[in-house]
Design a protein that fits this description.
Elements lengths: L14 H6 L14 E7 L5 E7 L1 H5 L3 E5 L9 E2 L11 E3 L5 E2 L5 E7 L2 H10 L1 E6 L6 H4 L21 E5 L2 H6 L3 E9 L11 E6 L5 E5 L4 H12 L6 E4 L15 H13 L3 E4 L2 H7 L6 E9 L5 E13 L5 H11 L9 E9 L13 H19 L3 H8 L17 H13 L1 H6 L8 E13 L10 E7 L5 E5 L8 H13 L6 E4 L17 H28 L6 E4 L2 E4 L6 E3 H5 L10 E7 L5 E13 L5 E11 L6 H20 L34 E3 L18 H17 L5 E2 L3 H14 L8
Parallel strand pairs: 1-14, 10-29, 12-13, 16-17, 20-21, 27-28
Antiparallel strand pairs: 1-7, 2-6, 2-8, 3-7, 4-5, 9-17, 10-15, 11-12, 11-14, 15-16, 18-26, 19-20, 19-25, 22-23, 23-24, 26-27
Amino acid sequence: MNMSVVGKSVKRVDTLGKVTGLARYAGDLSLPGMLHAKIKRSNIAHASIKQIDVSKARALPGVKAVLTHQDVPRVLHYGSPHPRSASVTKDQYILDNKVRYWGEGVAAVAAISEEIAEEALDLIEVEYEKLPAAFTVEQALCPDAPLIHDTSPGGNLVMDPVIVTRGDIERGFAEADLIIEGEFKGGRPTPAYMEPNVCLCQWDGNGKLTVWISTQAPFMVRGVIAEVLGLPLNNVRVLVDHMGGGFGAKQDLFQNEFLCVLLARESKRPVRMELSRKETFLSGRSRHPVHVWLKQGFKKDGTITARQALLTFNSGAYGSHAPGVTGVSTASLTSLYRCENVHLEGRAVYTNTPIAGAFRGYGCVQSYYPLDIQMDEAAERLGIDPAELKLRNAVRGDDIAPSGHAVTGHGLEDCIRRGMAEVKWSEVRAQAHETSGAIRYGWGMGCEMHGSSAYPGIKEQGNAIVKMNEDGTVTLVTGTTGLGTGAHTALAQIVAEELGVKFEDVGVVHGDTDVTPWDIGAFASHTTFMGGRAAQMAAAEVKKQLLERAAERLEAAPGDLDIADGMISVKGVPGYQISVREAIAPRLGLPAAHLVGTASYHPTKSYSFAAHFVQVKVDTKTGQIEVVKVVPVHEIGRTIHPVAAAGQIEGGIQQGIGHTLTEDYVIDTTDGHSLNPSFVDYKMPLSMDMPPIHTIIIETAPNPGGPFGAKGIAEDPIIAIGPAIANAVYHAIGVRFHHYPITPEQVLDGLRKKNEAAPRPGIAA
């Protein structure tokens, strides 16, 4: 199908505002009379609050409002703005008479300056009654462990375990010629988005609340705030224009949003609250640390006969997205590499540590890392090339995906084959690993699949309004949120393509819950897939109306007309055409046509696929691992904006390299305090650390449910890169690592143990 706009890297609709600095983020805003808010945070990980004395803070000149747990609604709320989804928990109060992790907020202040607000925090006196704490999953699961939530029916389990079974697991292992089992651990990387959490709140004289905020889900923010405060939805307006990233974590509502709202109501003035970088570590969200026990059975030809696993997630002090992450991660192990007999159990555990939540690659990072590494281990034991083993077992058309739906096409196979050919896989794997002295090189590969939507865990819906203006230009009104990824550009491309108008003639209105149609939020790689499909459907409705109007002018049936590049023509009659502007223009004293299309789209599930091929360099003297080259191959259906899609892939790879080699938010297990809540000690790869990335995007398995066959892309690249690096390290030095991040110290320790275990010359093994 020939495309005139889709598939082109057009200039993004937000380019001018961003390069000129005129784009307005929530943190850029200021209102007359605005106050500044700060949060008093606990310096203890688990305690009851016996008393809070705020009298000195309230008496400080310039302080206009102070709140403690005694001053806010005592309503349990959802950490995530998905209040009717089984994927999140309802276990938080805005402020409580108990703290459950080091750094949890216990009071809030609004003052005429940030300096006065900070001074007021120091004047608040808190008397704690220290409680026993559990900082690790092992401690929290002990029979005598302290209860972190008194009302939790399963002790410190966030929810009932997730059990996924299929086939006959005992028969599967009995049929196996080789059984491999192992334990794997994943650390606590954080999203580290550029723009810290920030909001500005104002109440008007009629009791209506307006919230300017950096969030991925403005309508869900509106819903949760309205529910907790007992307000009708039309009395809460949420505005999001530009965002500096979210990576999933900004699906949650944090303490600061609720407190900002309530401080504004208490002071009767606008209140702004922006978290510091340290606070985004303390009270933000991280990926769930995980422990995975994985056991698989294989036949001699590489066929997988059985897969059994126990996944245990550390949720931190509150549940947030623990049910969703646990469910997705557990179900993910049913797929990627086909297996008829599975028995999988996933569980999430409360601990007295910072909250884990949604993060790019939701649950799949934690499950595909051990799965892909263990596939390499099996390949070595079976004498099969690891890429060949994965190719033999790759899910393909009609296999069952984690969602329970059939896979469409052969996208994963196509990615593996293309990558093998691109890097000359057989040749690079056979090359000597030593170059000179201590340096070793190795190649590895990893695979992934990820859904474009959160269905069936969440029943999603995309909505769109498309209207044509009297000059033939078009306005798309969408509730989808832009995280900085160029999503609204892609949606404008889809509308332009469907209508047959120029891309420059499509404008986008977004970011206002009072104006735009409802949207569930930007997550699960579904914005283009779901929001784009709704926009396409609404544009198709306008196109139908436009052709009916043009048919009168051209004296032809609507079905005999085409639209391209803003011109409407009669098929097979060259030169017989009118412009879109002429078709819609007023005539015979009548106003211009009022052409409006609306659409709602309820997606099921679509999967994108990827295979990453990675070369690493390992210095056996220092333990330093360097990623030398990455060749990611992604199958995403139809590419809407190639440069934006490649940018998503390369950005995800940068995050994944950090996850695998350097990034870990570390909590002291003696008292629960955070050891590295800053970019000084939390090490992310910088631009100069990045290797060359040769990105390949293929379109071999389009999904008819997406706009022009498009599927999602944003979550995929962070998943496959981790196991690809770990497998490449093993190829380089012969040491297998079952965890992330892999540090230089661990490399040196692994090499030492390997050398100690090696047979010495003249001594029998």
